[in-house]
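User: Some background: our group keeps a shared notebook of sequences we're curious about, and every so often someone picks one and asks for a predicted structure to add to the entry. Today it's my turn. The entry only has the sequence so far, pasted here. Could you supply the structure so I can complete it?
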Amino acid sequence: MNDQNTLLQIDGVTKLFPGVRALDNVTFSVLAGEVHGLVGENGAGKSTLMAVASGALVPEDGRVVINGMQTRGDTDEARRLGLAIVRQEPALMPDLTVAENLYLGVPAQQRPSLMRTREWAHQLLRQWSDDVAIDASERVLSLNPAQRFIVEIVKALAAKPKVLVLDEPTEHLLAEDVDRLFERIRSVTASGCSVVYISHRIREVQKIANRLTVLRDGQGQGTYDAAGLSEQQIVELIVGGALDREFPAKAGDGRSGTVIEVASLRGAGFTDVSLRVQQGEIVGLAGIDGNGQREFMRALAGLARSRGSVTVNGKPAKLQSSQAAAASGIRCLPGDRHREGIFGDLSVRENFSIRSLPLDSIKGWISQRSEATRTRLAVADFTVKTPSVETPIRSLSGGNQQKLVLASVLASKPEVLLVDEPTQGVDVGARMEIYKVLREAAAAGTAVIVVSSDAMEVAGLCDRVLIFSRGHIVRELRDAAVSENNITSAVLTATTERERGSASIPGFWKWAAGDWAPIAMLALVVCALGMYAAHVNETYLSTRNLSGMLALVATLAIVAYGQQALMLVGGIDLSVGPLMGLMVVIQSFFLNDGATLGHQLSGWVIVFLVAIAVGLVNWTLVGPFRLHPMVATLATYMALQAVSLLLRPVPGGLIADSVVETIGMQAGFIPIISIVAVILAVGLEFSLFRTRLGLAFRGVGSRTEAARMAGVRSHLTLLAAYVGCSLFAGIAAIPMMAQVGSGDPSAGINYTLASIAAVVIGGASLFGGRGSFIGSLLGALLIIQVNVVTSFLDIGDSWQSYLLGGMILVSVALYSKSREMAVAK
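Assistant: Of course. Here's the predicted structure to add to the notebook entry:
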């Protein structure tokens, strides 16, 4: 029986990964109302231990008790018992808005009506800060790293947890936001909540924690009173011995020769910046985040546009792109490791060699032996902990990822090395190694420029420090003046004013990245094309032509709705066309003249059971069997087509006239099926943005793992999407049946690509999370309209393919570019 004051108890937990014992019989307990620090090097097992506590990982041995109840390794159960976790990489869904992420992040009983999520989310954000610069209606992908962490922390606090786990919560936060976070921590612990605080920043842990537990190599090293240990003692417990010094010796006065010279460089966020860096020198850029130092570094790396003069060893540097900057000798170690530093699915070997491939290639052919040899040397030199060089880098700890990226950048032998937050997420033992490597690179003649939010790090590592304020360099510190106090003082006392500039995201691109832009643009194109066709051929607007065209639009639109639902969750279904054909073939045996009502009903039951079965098969292949959606549904495509040809080798079996007439009923000249298609589009669009199911679909497609951690049952959502797609194909087969009139096994083939085209033209993302059913309807309308107009204008059937291909390319390019422009840098 646990002490009633213990809200989290972990007893004897052991967790194994291939080749690694991540946790070895670890015991850990957290009392009500305390902040319990959890410290250790990268790979020590801190995040793994909390993943076990949260149910994200199931241990081989041991137990977890939350608020007096033993858990069974389930994230939903851990959430219900009151555990909330803020991870190093925020578990947010980028294509959802801030409000929608907050909505999914709290228990169901705490959620407001979906109609008022924006106001509710705004209130939560104001509890963080009255002047918080985060719009609840903005998509998460448009937020910068600090804002994403604030949203993640607000989400965790909104759940009113019993146990709050904070895993490196301050890595991206400004100093004022760190203070706000500590205020919230003190507030929630005063109400009886427990906080587990994981950080490499020892001073923060000492400042906020009551007790702390040390992990080393997956084993507990004891629990201590935080106030009873000095910083040096904590470091020694973490690394298992004494560290003589944290920073290597600086270069001194023997520097000569300018490596990089920048003159009057300006860009978004900074103005008229000039500097020189000499051989053997490390220059630090300091300032409150957002004052231009990071933007300036990104411009030097070719990652942002700039104007001005830059020379490297006397030669003009080109900064139009990162490739051009690299060719000029400038390389960058990015601060956002997950988004810009690593290739998560590639191996350690491939991540290391990718920046210096010429060293491993002969006449364009890559030598894996050379790659592996160089990588093993780098892994040893940089003490990267990895089971092998073929291990996916995604499975390494954050610090080991950082060290490997640094090794990769240095392997390209840059003349200028730009380093953004060199030790972010890196343990204290590894920091000294990184500092030593940077100093050795400078000594070898590389100009090193460092941006860091840690004033002590800048002071200890750099020979000179340039203070940025509002986009300008306002002060330079050198030699003995480079100290933590002087840097902090210079940052806080700067009085410059930022030069007024344009918004970082142009208005058109921000609008084009929204949900309504594809609909508006499609409506404009449809109207323009219709007006042109009517001008050239007045029979285009005849009721007969419009009636026939609307019936075709309805058929394509309905199957496109199913494709859209599936693409929302990141899937695709190539089998919808053959499925439609098979359903018509099956019905050609049941809906003949003279068939009894019971016989006809049997046909309807059979075809929709077939549709459900096809959806289940596709889901099984993609879900449990983990086949790629295109491979899985292509196999289903061929199987369905084979069945259709077996049943009807040649078209046959006329559909009864009474059935055809019923399906083709009209209200005036408008087919009833087209009215149904419009009603479906509006209803589905409303459901997409105003129901939990729609939110789940978009969340899973945006980021499956984050949706799962938010309590969305991603496997059931995927099942609903595949079965729903097949059912929509079945519904679309009904009007197609009236148009074909008999069991033709090839009747639906063209609908596969046409349905995908309608969805893509309608604004859907090929990667999931974004789309519109009204956009799919308009996309279907445009495709049918193009086919009809080319016939009316007598310009040849080939133009149908040219125009359709062009529309797809323009749509994908425009929507992709707009979303790229809307992403926070």
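Suggested note for the entry: The longest helix spans residues 714-740. The radius of gyration is 31 Å.
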